[in-house]
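name: query_chain
kind: protein
chains: 1
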Amino acid sequence: QVQLVESGGGLVQPGGSLRLSCTASSATLDYYAVGWFRQAPGKEREAISCINASVGTTNYIDTVKGRFTIARGSNKKAVYLEMSHLTPEDTTVYYCATDPGMICTAGNFHYSRTQIGTWGQGTQVTVSS
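structure:
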């Protein structure tokens, strides 16, 4: 199982931008689809975007489409989430994860909570003036 670590969160004003990083501690992400998720207190974890760099596909939920961009780093050991036009509703903890059976196409983002297993600590994003 590839271990992923999130970073890059922080405090930003509404309308601002942040870039989150998801870094693999070992191995490259050549053959893995990777997803970004977020979870606000008291709410279900929400899958917001994924990338399968080996086939060049990405997926976004409607609420972030056009504002967030997911991409794999050139060293193939990181996946980034570029977030722009942030609103207070984007405030929460963001996580990245992968599982062997994760599916990421333009029309489908499917993952298994069981296969993901233990989540990382995530990175806090706070959008506030």
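note: The longest strand covers residues 18-24.
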